[in-house]
Amino acid sequence: MPLDLSELRELLTALNQTDIAELILKSEDFELTVRRGSRIEPADGSQLSSRERMSLSPIVTPLPAADLSRGTADTPNGAPSQSVPPPTSDRRLVEILSPMVGTFYRSPAPDESPFVDVGDRIRSGQTVCIIEAMKLLNEIDAEVSGEIVEILVQNSEPVEYGQPLMRVNPS
After folding, report:
1. Which residues are CB-neighbours of 33 under 8 A, at least 6 positions away?
2. Which residue of 7, 18, 77, 95 has the fewest C-beta atoms within 10 A of its own C-beta?
3. 64-115: per-residue pLDDT in tens?
4. E strands, 15-77, where?
């Protein structure tokens, strides 16, 4: 019995309202596997504890400074965000990328100050933001020390896997 798109949406919506971690549907025509959260496998084949599986690191990709030609970004209300210093040809920036799909938050709570702002110095391992995925809050830690040059996502905005979140001038 094949599932149509609306039935699949209903199934995923129903699963989202439960605490089921994994569902596998099999028939002669198809196989569907739905898992909550991220599955992280170590390169050496060893097993991770459940706490280690929940700890996620962002993906970091070097980016040439020349790719920052736009200089400023507009916020949803039309006001320009904090401007970025003009890039220099000898400077290499590093992007902090989202390790998952979810909702980006700059601070630990709505009434608290952001983890980082443009111009802040950060160190490797420092929490720079939170991404909420499936009602779980995942702290995203920097993998590089340096200065925050640009924050590319607005607070409470949805993000995709691999989407650039921030740009850092490594030190």
Report:
1. 22, 23, 24, 25
2. 77
3. 544 444 444 444 444 444 444 444 433 689 999 999 999 999 999 999 999 9
4. 22-26, 31-35, 59-64
What does DSSP say about strands 158-159 and 31-35: parallel, antiparallel, or unpaired? unpaired
Write out pLDDT tens, residues 1-53: 566 777 777 777 777 777 777 778 777 776 777 776 644 444 455 554 444 44
Question: 3-state SS of 72-101?
Answer: CCECCCCCECCCCCCCCCCCEEEEEECCCC
The tokens for 146 are 């340096």
CA–CA separation, 56 vs 53, rounded Å?
7
Contact 147, 120 (CB under 8 A): yes
Residue 92 · residue 171 · CB < 8 Å: no
Cβ atoms < 10 Å from Cβ of 96: 27
Is pLDDT of 159 > 80?
yes
